[in-house]
Write a structure and sequence with these properties.
The chain is of the alpha/beta class and 463 residues long. It has helices at 22-43, 56-67, 86-95, 122-131, 149-166, 168-172, 185-193, 213-221, 226-240, 249-264, 279-293, 323-328, 357-360, 367-384, 399-420, 431-440, and strands at residues 2-4, 75-79, 113-117, 137-142, 175-179, 196-199, 268-273, 295-297, 303-306, 309-312, 333-342, 389-396. The strands form 3 sheets. A 5-stranded mixed sheet has the order 1-12-11-7-10, with helices on both faces. A 5-stranded parallel sheet has the order 3-2-4-5-6, with helices on both faces. The structure holds 5-phosphoarabinonic acid (PA5).
């Protein structure tokens, strides 16, 4: 994987916007202190995801499960939210053929379908339960804490549906939990009812957990090469210890985005892969960047109100949607393109007699060529307009490069926490909303939070 970052620098843009080249040297000089802080915090048990490049035992356990019990099902239903769902969605989208669930058994090479329910929208749940045969499903309930309201509510609904169709004993054999090794309601239930349960390492935070059994189990069940995923992550980790910022891609990327935000006003960080297969990866990145870096307090407990706003886009589709804003709107963005050099499969644009002149240029090219030309053109056009942008170039998109890309972003997020001076592993901002939800749902002990009244005042009539 390569990081092209020249177009972050003002001498490659319009001379006015972008980072002055000497900033690179300044960032490189500051980097040893950043790296030292990461090392210290790792010593204190933070940054647990650094351990995910070597997982021989975990992989063996998942393989045993997937090749044994897992074979008995032709549908996997994942229940989870946030870090317990987004990574799995990204893996399915990137590493299995499009429209996986619509393919025949042969088309899926007899691997199961995979449905991921990440919301408590009753219409999604009701539709899924109508579509899925309870006799053929394995339900993987994923929650690190084991007590997240949305996931546990989903579980209760699905459990009743299984119990009704199969009886409680058989229902338990259609369940696998992925949760903390020792604590939380899901762990307790698994012990009480003898339900299979995989472990999420306690030192790995939710949004950093896709390369634990959280993502690896569903991935293995649908035939994704999880050994290669982890090997790709290990490759990213190898370069993360380099002391020279300019030779440490994840650290350099985090430094450039932080500097763009804090010294150039580029507070919006757009991730724009030129691939439909990375659409869900963008959504995963958005959560990782937002929840890790958006913080009210700094590490010393002082108000800081830090955090760039991540934004997902997909090329070329969003050239006809958001790119106008990126090109001519406020100078408050950095766009990171992700390009795949070899798309794996390409489609030729056929010749056709008597085409109007305005269309003739397309024939003889391929859709892959057009997509690549559009990525190049958009990056160059942004640069001409003085807009900072960078490109992550993958040789191809497979399990190994995907593992690399995921770990690259996790590492960048970990470094960014230090540049911004915030704790990238907590999320205190989501707590108040959770407590008010508990109060509204009548959970004992939360009445003191007060009623959650609808917004006061007369609603405006929009009819
Ligand atoms: O990154 C995080 O910690 C969160 O997004 C969690 O993944 C999310 O809240 C779900 O939590 P849990 O896995 O405990 O159900």
């Amino acid at each position: 994987m390569k990081l092209h970052y020249g177009r972050m620098l003002n001498d490659k843009l319009d001379g006015q916007h972008g980072l002055p080249r000497h900033r690179l040297q300044e960032l490189a000089q500051r980097f040893p202190a950043v790296a030292a802080e990461v090392d210290t915090r790792r010593g204190q048990g933070e940054y647990g995801f650094y351990g995910l490049g070597r997982q021989t035992e975990v992989i063996r356990g998942i393989r045993r499960f997937a090749d044994g019990v897992g074979q008995a099902y032709d549908h996997v239903l994942v229940l989870g939210i946030g870090g317990s769902a987004l990574g799995t969605k990204a893996l399915l989208n990137a590493l299995r053929p499009p429209a996986w669930n619509e393919l025949s058994d042969e088309g899926r090479e007899f691997f199961p379908r995979l449905t991921i329910l990440e919301n408590v929208d009753p219409t999604s749940m009701a539709a899924a339960l109508r579509r899925i045969d309870p006799r053929r499903v394995l339900v993987n309930v994923i929650s690190k804490s084991g007590g997240t309201a949305e996931t546990l509510a989903q579980y209760l609904v699905v459990r009743a549906w299984l119990d009704q169709a199969l009886g409680p004993d058989a229902a338990a054999r259609h369940l696998a939990f992925t949760t903390d090794p020792a604590k939380g309601p899901l762990r307790e239930l698994s012990q009480k009812e003898g339900i299979a349960a995989l472990e999420i390492p306690p030192e790995v935070g939710g949004r950093f957990s896709v390369l634990t059994p959280v993502g690896l189990l569903p991935a293995a069940l649908v035939g994704i090469d999880i050994e290669a995923l982890v090997a790709g992550a290990a490759t990213a980790l190898e370069t993360a210890g380099r002391p020279d910022l300019l030779r440490n891609p994840a650290a350099l990327y985090s430094a450039l985005l932080w500097a763009a935000d804090t010294s150039q006003g580029a507070r919006v960080h757009v991730l724009m892969p030129y691939s439909d297969r990375l659409r869900d990866f963008s959504a995963w990145f958005v959560q990782l960047w937002a929840e890790s870096l958006g913080k009210r307090l700094d590490r010393r407990g002082q108000p800081i109100y830090a955090g760039p706003t991540p934004l997902g886009a997909v090329g070329a589709t969003d050239q006809h949607s958001q790119v106008q804003l990126f090109m001519e709107g406020p100078f408050d963005k950095v766009v990171t393109f992700v390009r795949i050099s070899d798309p794996g499969e390409d489609v030729r644009i056929p010749h056709r007699p008597d085409l109007p002149e305005e269309l003739a240029y397309l024939q003889g090219h391929s859709l892959g060529e057009l997509l690549a030309a559009e990525a190049d053109a958009t990056s160059a056009a942004l640069a001409r307009m003085g807009r900072m942008n960078a490109t992550l170039e993958l040789p191809r998109l497979d399990a190994e490069t995907m593992g690399h890309l995921i770990m690259f972003m996790q590492l960048a997020t970990g470094f960014a926490g230090v540049w911004y001076g915030v704790d990238p592993f907590d999320q205190p901002g989501v707590e108040l909303g959770k407590r008010l939800t508990f109060a509204a749902m009548g959970r004992p002990g939360y009445q003191r939070e007060g009623p959650v009244a609808p917004e006061a005042g007369q609603p405006a009539d929009v009819a």
